[in-house]
Structures are given as structure tokens and as C-alpha cells.
Amino acid sequence: MPTVAALAAPSAHAPFERTTIARREPGPRDVVIDIAFAGICHSDIHTVRDEWGAAHHPLVPGHEIAGVVSAVGGEVTRFAVGDHAGVGCFVDSCRECENCLAGEEQYCLRGTRYTYNTPLPEGDPEGAWTQGGYSRQIVVDEDYTLRIPDSLPLDAAAPLLCAGITLYSPLKHWGVGPGTKVGILGMGGLGHMGVKIAAALGAEVTVLGHSLAKRDDGIRFGATRYLATTDPATFRELHRSLDLIVSTVSADIDLNRVLGLLRLDGALVNVGLPEKLLSISPFALTDQRLSVAGSNIGGIRETQEMLDFCAEHDITPQIEVIDADGVDAAWDRVVASDVRYRFVIDVATI
């Protein structure tokens, strides 16, 4: 059973430690990926620090994984040694429920197997829990492996496997295209991808930021307007003008005020995950037949569609590549919103 170098969090608030973890011998349908880069997602931090419930430690996080195929099983047909490949937020599902059969494996009715911190069957060679991409190698069934187009640099491709698909999926599901007016609430690691993708889909994009500090970036990414939610004039200017707002923020905000920006049959879709319960007045919804919804990443088919779309439109996240020794400091900077816009670990330094 092969072991590979990894960065593990030994407990919720301890610094990362270098370690080794087990990976299974590749089966007939498995793809072995030598990981080149792993993005840092705020979900990694929430999970490791027990902010979404007790995690299993020691834990190797990371679900924005990009690398090169180094081996394939005998029944693999879609990947060959040397291909660029990626892994996103999950590595398996039941494959039989109606959602899996519809290509929406992230909503598996029997439980999606996430890339890290998910229990494995008793006796699994990789141990009791899945371990993620802050490691040198991963073994994944080809049905849950993504092909990364050659035109996408691997370091910039890594965050697409979570940040990219998290925004692409709701934009597509709610029919964004030419003539659509879209608001992106918050322009961090998720939001900046929303701006780029919505603009490429042909929408008129307005960024709703806490301040105007990132205005120049927002316009460069494709936004038509960048307005501050701390300015009361924003809510007067945009009143009943947007078709869709995608909220990427985890901070507590006045959603009733934000709902006032939507026109008839508009929707507010949450992809950010605030720790506190959302508070919404029914009157804010009934006034214009509005909807409040949520969206969770995307299925394998849609994630591949997103990668191909980003390659076609030359869309990549803005990244800062760091080495393994810089991960703890990078996490602190993510929490402090001090990153433009995604940290990516050079896994060769682990």
C-alpha cells in the first residue's frame, strides 16, 4: 500500500505538520494523479477548525486539486498517463439514486463521499476517513476525475474545482445569459469567479462589495458596476433592477435590504455559508414573487463543462502560489480577507 507525503492538521487549531498518508493501490477503474497544486478554500478552514461540526483529526484538507496522471487502471478509457487531471469536492457517491443518475452527484441521496473528512468503509486501505489534496498524490475512480484542458495552467486550474464550479452551477441553473442582470454579493475567492463567469455568459454584472476597495479589479474582471453595500445610495440606485443575486459572503448581512434589489421573479442564491441563521421577512418575498435558494458546487458532468467553458473563454482565478511552509500564514490571511483572490499550494514543496 503506497504512502505519500502530506500536510495534516493534528487538531482543530494546531499548526500543520508534515506526515505521510496511505493511498490505495489503483483498481481497474482508478486514476492516479500526482498532485501539482492544491487550492486553499475557506471550507478547508471551517472544516479543520470544527466550525461546521467536529472533524476527524489528523486531517489532510484540500478539494481543489490539479495534477498529472501517473498511472491508470486497466479499464480506464478517458485518461492516460501524462494527462492533466483534477479532483474537486467529492470522490464518490452511491451512483444509483435519482440525483446521481441525473449527474447531480453532489446531492446524492445516500451521501456524497467528500474528498476529505468523510468516513470510509471498514477495512478500506486508505484508512477510516478520506484525506484530501494537501498531499503529493491521490487515487480516484475515473468517473469522479476531471480532465483539465491543456490551455489551463495547472496552478490556476486548481481553484476552478471548487470556486469555479460553485459559481458556474447557479449561474447556469438560473439561466444567466445575454440580457440578464446579475449581482455578485461579495468579491473574494468565490465572488471574483462569479464576476468573470457571469460576464463571459453575456450578463450585465454588478458587484456588491462591502467597500469600493476592489472596484478596479471588479471592472477588470468584467463587471459593469461596482457598488458598496455600506452606501445607502446603492440600494436606491439598484432598487428592483436585478434578475439574480448570488451571495458569496459568510458574514451576516441584511438580506431583506438585498432582496429589494431584485425585480419580479428574481432570485437570491446563497453559496456563502454564514454561521448564523438567515433572517428574512416574508413580506420581502411576497412583494415581487421572489425566491431565496442555495446551491452546492456541481456534479461531475457540469464541472467538466465549466472547465471546458473556462478554457474556451480564457477564464482563470487570480492566485497567489505559496509553498508548504506558508500554509498556516495563508489560512490566517484568508480568515482576515487578506488575499486576492485564492491561495494555491505548490505541492512539490510538501
Note the topology:
Blueprint: E1 3-8, E2 17-22, E3 30-39, H1 42-48, E4 65-72, E5 84-87, E6 90-92, H2 98-101, E7 113-114, E8 137-141, E9 146-147, H3 154-157, H4 163-173, E10 181-185, H5 191-200, E11 204-209, H6 215-221, E12 225-228, H7 232-237, E13 242-247, H8 255-259, E14 262-270, H9 282-286, E15 291-294, H10 300-312, E16 319-322, H11 327-335, E17 342-346
Parallel strand pairs: 10-11, 10-13, 11-12, 13-14, 14-15, 16-17
Antiparallel strand pairs: 1-2, 3-4, 3-8, 3-17, 4-5, 5-9, 6-7
Quickly list its features.
Quinone Oxidoreductase, Chain A, domain 1; six-stranded parallel β-sheet; alpha/beta; seven-stranded mixed β-sheet; Rossmann fold; 2 domains; globular; 350 residues; 11 helices
Structure description:
The chain has 350 residues and is of the alpha/beta class. It has 2 domains: 3-162 and 316-349, Quinone Oxidoreductase, Chain A, domain 1 (Alpha-Beta Complex); 164-294, 3-Layer(aba) Sandwich (Rossmann fold). 23% of the residues lie in helices and 25% in strands. The chain has 11 helices and 17 strands. It has helices at 42-48, 98-101, 154-157, 163-173, 191-200, 215-221, 232-237, 255-259, 282-286, 300-312, 327-335, and strands spanning 3-8, 17-22, 30-39, 65-72, 84-87, 90-92, 113-114, 137-141, 146-147, 181-185, 204-209, 225-228, 242-247, 262-270, 291-294, 319-322, 342-346. Strands 3, 4, 5, 8, 9, 16 and 17 form a 7-stranded mixed sheet that branches. A 6-stranded parallel sheet has the order 12-11-10-13-14-15, covered by helices on one side. Strands 1-2 form a two-stranded antiparallel sheet. Helix 6 (215-221) links the parallel strand 11 and strand 12. Helix 4 (163-173) packs across helix 5 and helix 4 crosses helix 10. The protein is globular, with a radius of gyration of 20 Å. The model has no long low-confidence stretch (mean pLDDT 96).
